[in-house]
Amino acid sequence: MASISLKNITKNFGQTSVVEDLNLDINDGEFIVLVGPSGCGKSTTLRMIAGLEEVSSGQIHIGERNVTKLEPSERNIAMVFQNYALYPHKTVYENLAFGLKMRKVPKEEINKKIKWASEILRIENLLDRKPKQLSGGQMQRVSLGRALVRSPEVFLLDEPLSNLDAKLRIRMREEIGQLHQRLGINMIYVTHDQVEAMTLGDRIVVMNQGKVQQIGTPLEVYDHPANLFVAGFIGAPEMNLIEGTLINDNGQYVFKNERITIKLGDKLKTITTKTNKAVLGIRPEYVEVVTGENRLNLLKAKVLLIEQMGAQTLVICELLGNQKIRILSARDDRYSVGDELNITFNDTKLQLFDGATGEVLF
Questions:
Q1: Range(s) for CATH 3.40.50.300 in the chain?
Q2: Burial tier of 242 (Cβ tally within 10 Å: 0-12, 13-18, 19+)
Q3: Half-sphere exposure at residue 179, Cβ-oriented, CA atoms within 13 angstroms
């Protein structure tokens, strides 16, 4: 096992920059998830670590070795792909053994490694089958096993669950998490699914347009997004984002638009923005439905849609005008389309972003 360091990594395709000045230090045994929308540079970053893409500038270190110019076979990494990449004419055993045979590993050691990996992944009874006889989840386990028998320093996983149905994705997500706990090997996992990122990663790296937006533990990124992109991308259901302006009322700041007026008190002791435009953020679970009208910052909302989520209910409302607000409430709360509600925001959970730059203010 070894730590991994990416220093000032840049990747250009002609005049197009797809990864810009990426810096990331990964601790020995850490599970890192690269997450972001399609085209953000996360898979390209993974392929550069693997040696499948050349680095335009910067350095990649695995342990004490500078592997920037090394071939993939010299980096002691194993990669799991989205499409399984199994040989259809070979049995599961032959698929698992193929890479080891190419490296001229003795047969006795091959058998020992395959026995060990197949027991961990619970595929011992599949070794004589061919890929066409396997389910999607079984094929993904075989793909993981083929990487596992190589005893790599680093596991690279490129959207490995994308081809699975929803239930199987959850099951395989759990298995990958447990596999990491058992092995303690560095894993770098690429996904566009922020739920996978939140549930799997020791830390997550949020990327957009080739740039790192934020690095942190799942709860750090969820509770304290660095900018508007992270706030809107991380979280399901997504954060409520409300555009407005900041007004200084005798040293006490007020957020205001045509529908909402919220006193921010002394949360903003200094303003570094070049404009008074701002965006107020509040997670759906921190929007409260209240009875009575003696509450500060009380807002009136009309229910537009009810989404039953099992353990919870998502209530989508509209304030006066066309501002939509998502409320995450208990499953037993009974609301109907057309109901008028009094709502308020948990003052301690409000977040404010610069309307011009998108950077967080508090």
A1: 4-233
A2: buried
A3: 22
Give yes or no for a contact between 140 and 61, defined as CB atoms under 8 angstroms apart. Answer: no
pLDDT digits (tens), the chain, 362 positions = 679 999 999 999 988 899 999 999 999 999 999 999 999 999 999 999 999 999 999 999 998 899 999 999 899 898 888 777 788 999 999 999 998 888 889 999 999 989 988 888 888 899 999 999 988 888 888 888 888 888 888 999 998 888 778 887 888 888 889 888 888 889 999 999 989 999 999 999 999 999 999 999 999 999 999 999 999 999 988 999 999 998 877 777 888 888 788 887 766 655 555 678 999 999 999 999 988 666 666 888 999 999 998 889 999 999 866 789 999 998 888 889 999 999 989 888 999 999 889 999 88
Distances (CA, A) of 111 to 98, 114, 149, 178: 12, 5, 10, 24
Q: Which residue is listed with tokens 């500060």?
A: 296
The DSSP bridge partners found for residue 13 are 16
Rounded Cα–Cα distance for residues 146 and 78 (Å): 9
Residues of the chain with CATH 2.40.50.140: 240-354
Give the integer Cα–Cα distance in Å for 150 and 110.
10
CA 281 to chain centre: 20
* Tokens of residue 165, six digits: 């149905």
Place of tokens 């091959």: 110
In CATH terms, the fold of domain 4-233 is Rossmann fold (3.40.50)
Considering only CA atoms, which of 212, 205, 207, 152 is closest in space to residue 180?
Answer: 152
Structure tokens at 272: 């570094």
Q: Quick check: pTM over 0.85?
A: yes
* Contact criterion met (CB below 8 Å) for 6 and 49: yes
For 299, other C-beta atoms within 10 Å of its C-beta total 21
The most distant pair of C-alpha atoms in the chain lies apart, rounded to whole Å, by 80
CATH for the stretch 240-354: 2.40.50.140
> Torsions phi, psi of 108, nearest 5?
-60, -40
